[in-house]
Write a structure and sequence with these properties.
Elements (H helix, E strand, L loop, with lengths): L2 E5 L4 E5 L2 H7 L3 H14 L7 H8 L3 H13 L3 E4 L4 E4 L2 H6 L4 H20 L3 E7 L2 E8 L14 E3 L4 H8 L3 H15 L7 H11 L2 E4 L6 E9 L5 E10 L8 H18 L9
Antiparallel strand pairs: 1-2, 3-4, 5-6, 5-10, 6-7, 8-9, 9-10
Length: about 280
Amino acid sequence: MPMAIHRSRNTVRAVRRSPRQHAARYAAPALAKGLDILELFASESAGLTTSEVARGLGRTIGEIFRMLVCLEARGYISQAPKDERFELTLKLFELSHRHPPLQRLVAEARPLMEAVARKTGQSCHLAMLSDGEVIVVAQVDAPGTAGFAVKLGARIDLLNTASGHLILAFQEPATCARSLAEWKKRSGQPLPRALEEHLTRIRKRGYEETPSYQVRGVKNIAFPVVSEHGEAIAALSVPFLARIGDPITANDVKAALRIASRKLSGAVGGTKAEQT
């Protein structure tokens, strides 16, 4: 947490500030205004005039005009001469692909996954949705001489894995429906009758914990990596295999995954899911 240094003649003491206090003290109104404008343009595919931007943000045309001139000069927006409407260019897209999102996610996840593996003695993997399936995009082995792990690059049926159910539970209804439609097309099967009730239970507790759908004796525990909109972009999971004489329990695994998933969500600009 940010700290402010208070000095007196004889002492120096640190006072902790909350993130909100820190943000308020170091506010950058011009930057905030520019970001508001970019976010507004991102929601309007047909472009916007200066007056429409002003109305949309509740500001005066004078406030907005200079910002639009600056954003156009830097190449973030462009203006069509025929109707004076501004629209986003592809510059933001180009900037985002200088650091590909998947590579960044994996890079941020790996040290957190290694920490989970060290704390629990279990393997850990990161999974994402892909065409009605779940694909393992990163994996860390258990540190001991024996353990159970999911293979890197493995593709698993969407409804045959804890990660799949978890990600579906933290999706907008329309996104969830599209994923399930892809699953139905791929599998040729109807959706399980109790699926929605199961997803509701996952949302309420904030994570998934269930016996493995594939291996007896393994308990799958998964926590969501959450975007800024509260949707799961990935699942951080441990296939927990209890060992004779090992004091590590499923609760220990959940505690380690809870911390790692929150840190990873924050690292990619997301929020923290409500996890008990």
